[in-house]
Amino acid sequence: MRNQCLRLLLLRCHPPSAPHISQVHHFRSFPSSLLHAPAPHPIPIPFSLTRHFTSSTDPAVELPKPRADQAALIEIFSKPEISIDAIKSDLDSKNVIVSHDLILEVLKTPNIDPDVARRIFYWVSGSQREILSCNSYNMMIGILGGNGFVKETWELINVMKKKRYGVKRGAFDRISERFMKDGAIDDVEKLKAVYATRFGGRKSKDVAGGDSGVSDCVRVGEIIRGQVWGDDVEKELKELGVEFSSDLVKGVLGMLGGDPNKALIFFRWVEDSGVFKHDEHSYNALARVLGNEDHSQKFWRFIDEMRSEGHEMARETYVSVCKQFLKKKMIEDAVNLFEFAANGVNKPSVEDCTLLLKKIVASEELDMDSFLKVVEVFKANGNAFTDNIVEALVKSLISVGRMNECNSILAELMEAGYVPSGDVQRKIAFKLSKYGDTGKALEFVDKMMASFDYSPWISLVKGFCEEHNLDGASISVEKMVKKLGASSCGGRPIDLLVGAYCQQNRPLGAYKFVKKMVNEKFLRPRHTLYKTLTRRLLARKHFKEALDVMCMMKNQGYPADVDSFIPYLAKKGTTEEAVAFTQGMTSKRSPAIPFFLRLFEAYLSAGRQSQAHDFLATCPGYVKDHADVLDLFTSNMSGAAKKKAADVAV
């Protein structure tokens, strides 16, 4: 009766479709002992691939640029010998989270060096074997076979056979093309035989008793896809005389992936007909098919049934269905799937959790309930959040312009036991001040102030300065002084802020802030900062303020910035300014003769003889009567002026 209802549903919804053979998805298991052992220290290379690598003869095309983590992973493994510790250190420093999707993207990289691909694959198989899938293996044998490594290709195919992985069309085409080119005809035929049985089941015999080369799985799938399900279909299936094994049923369900209704009917029929008792493999195969539907109600009913029958969701199923949910922006379903899998034996990995949280924070609307649910499930399974996870989430927030939500995200993670390291605090402080708004950045400071050390403060100020947010930077420096004391803030933070003011041609703003911090907070800037500020003030003709900076320098024991003032006075300054500078530059009665000589020389070199004489007239007698001063002025007189001066002297 149940089958009859399903037939009626199919008659209403699906007209007959032309038969065709499609590729199916298989269970993802894991490689045999060939790749089970953890990689030694450093990683050995059992065979060298470089000597066989051949470049394509196709016309040059512009290849797509790999994403940052993809390029970083390739760069790390480009070193011929690298230790396990070095790999982990490089991954952490480059913030690379190795996941199933990342490995696939790396193996898909055009013209990837086969040695590099093998090192990556070998390392992952030894350290994170759960993230390798059937697709991963097919990509790897495609690289090996496509570069002429016959022996190594067959070794890996044998590993795949033991794990019930089939050779997929893309890998088959790439390998067979290279084998044909190299004249390895026997290997081509052998590969065809492996490919023909990729769905499981034995080959059928044709009428003449010969081997048709078409698997039982393909024949069953073609019958079902070629017509509306009915008594005729069931009769044909029974007359095939095939043995409905777990592999065959799984393969047929994979072939029917584009038609979930037919897949479900076939699933029910094989058990109702008594030809097969469903196992965990077949349940998971149908779960992957139903997970591709736009509406998930049928999928959820089915996986509840699967668990009630005592079967667990395979990791391959979780990865496949979750990927479909996320692709279709079905965030709530993806979160529920994560919870379902976490309550089973094959729990999602840390990378799975990270990926899901990244998708949640980058979705069109941030659903904090979904985020919190994943956090709670992850924690309940005995996991702990790490800096790598948080940094990945921050990147996602920035990518969608949502950095202002960082405080809320961080609060939930800290509630779950996460304690941000100083390095993460530094990175978040910088990115909040650069990509968020001032209020959120300062809110982060207030929440984390108890654990803030010097570095996060610097990063906060730097982020504000790079974003030209001088108000935020100023407030941050003031808070930093209050928290750490003036003695800790007279260097880089005030340098950054003054530099940012000057870049915006606002030296007066920098002067006012420095004066406030020096007078009220007893800040002691570096000598170089005072000199920079003086030079920028004089460039804008703010002589009075520059002179005040000189007073601050004197009060803190620094010498006057003569190098900045003399060029200004010689080229632009007035006599009154020269007198004011001379009187203010030293606590003594008057500066020494070398200073006056230097200033007079600067006046005369700038062609301002009249101003030089005016200033000389204001100088004390010991300056006017000094022989070196008189010689300097005499040497710059014209011939007529010298004769007149001599006549006067006589």
From TrEMBL:
Keywords of this entry: Repeat
One Pfam assignment: PPR
Chain positions of PPR repeats: 279-313
Biological process, per Gene Ontology: RNA splicing
UniProt entry tagged with the keyword Transport: no
Entry-linked PANTHER family: OS01G0970900 PROTEIN, SMALL RIBOSOMAL SUBUNIT PROTEIN MS81 (RPPR8)
Name used for this protein in its record: Uncharacterized protein
